[in-house]
Description:
Blueprint: H1 4-14, H2 18-36, E1 53-55, H3 56-65, E2 74-79, H4 85-96, E3 103-111, E4 117-125, E5 128-138, E6 147-149, E7 167-169, H5 172-185, H6 192-201, H7 207-221, H8 230-236, H9 259-269, H10 278-285, H11 293-307
Parallel strand pairs: 2-5
Antiparallel strand pairs: 1-2, 3-4, 4-5, 6-7
Helix pairs in contact: 1-2, 5-6, 5-7, 6-9, 7-11
Amino acid sequence: MIPVALVRQYAQGQQIAYEVADQEVVLHYALALLAESGLVGHRTPGDEPGPLLFKGGTALRKCVFGSAGRFSQDIDLDASHENGFEAQIEQAFAERTPYHGIGFAIPSFRYSQDGNFSGTVHYEHPSQAGTFELQISYRLDPILDGRDLVLQQQGYFARVEVGVPLLYGLDPYEMIGEKIMACNRRLGGSGKDVYDLCLWAGRAFDAELVRRVAVLRAWTDQRERPRFEPADLLAMIEPRNFRWTDLTGLVPHRLQGDADRICRTVRERFAFLAELDPDEGTLLADQTAHRERRLFDQLRAEARALAATVSR
């Protein structure tokens, strides 16, 4: 059960609307349900992780940025093979609803041209109702090994009956690689991805690993348009090229009108993306032809070795 007073207190502390705060807590319960079902994360400490990897904006907020992160209104998951996971998720929600007083249902779902799944999850509890999107991307070439993701402390943790789920997902460095690719694809789209990169820019991180993962992701994406050209992307990180109204209500009020600072920070802190070494340049030139599989495997192995040494 989600107490109204708890949500009100959390909303006030985070400077967000009641509905956004309520959904943040609901997503916590949904992740706990999916972990309990064995699909995402660990059922109990020491168990093998489930087959779906937690990722995306919600993962970054809950497991990397904490209260500094923007609120996200969906659950993004990765699967390395197609295995009817969407049906298993639907069954998990159906078998457990109501889950600690929250009803969950997936009345509608759809598939993209490349077979990825997206479903609209409806939830309801005595004081609120709403929806969030749940997406599964089927990728055959993960760049880095998955890893345990620890939920960052939030004030409501002590008041939820489900405790803190033990999650497993994409390496945060790979999540940032995905954000770079998303910015490249969505010029003229949402400012959410740029905002996430700005938050990452405020952390200590290994620039070589970020650049390597971005190059490897561009190769696996195999897109003819838009190609990933780091210098061109950096030049396009300007406020006019993104839709900043998408951040309204999802970040503290004081940050909603700061697009100039956000873009400038990303351009300056990610300038290293254009400093390709010769192998990265060769692979990036092959991002659509895909003739350099051996080089890709070599660079991915090097990236995984580097990721194992980077402090978090």
